[in-house]
Amino acid sequence: MDIFVQGQNLFTWTKWRGLDPENNRQYGRFEYPNARKYTAGINVNF
Fold first, then answer.
1. What is the pLDDT of residue 21?
2. Where in the chain are the domains?
3. Which residues in 1-46 belong to E strands, given as ranges?
4. Angstrom distance (rounded) from CA 43 to CA 17
5. CB under 8 Å to 33, separation ≥6 — which residues?
6. Can you tell me the distance from the alpha carbon of 12 to that of 14, in angstroms, rounded to the nearest whole number?
7. Which is more confident, 5 or 14?
8. Which residues contact 23 (CB under 8 A, 6 or more apart)?
9. Who contacts 16 (Cβ-Cβ below 8 Å, separation ≥6)?
């Protein structure tokens, strides 16, 4: 039996004041930040 947990975009460590430091538009204004993604599961073999 395998148990797994995975996460993406959980933390952003920066002093940037805009919503999203990866955004190429004008200083990150009026854009949604990247969504956090969580995945968990169990793999059972018989």
1. 60
2. 2-43
3. 2-8, 37-43
4. 41
5. 12, 19, 20
6. 6
7. 5
8. 31
9. 28
Residues whose CB falls within 8 Å of the CB of residue 17, separated by 6 or more in sequence, listed in order? none
Give the per-residue pLDDT at 3: 96
In one letter, which amino acid is 39?
Answer: T
pLDDT in tens, 17-43: 666 666 666 555 556 667 889 999 999
CB 20 within 8 Å of CB 30: no
- Name the one residue in this structure whose structure tokens are 């955004």: 23
Phi, psi torsion values for 38, nearest 5 degrees: -120, 135
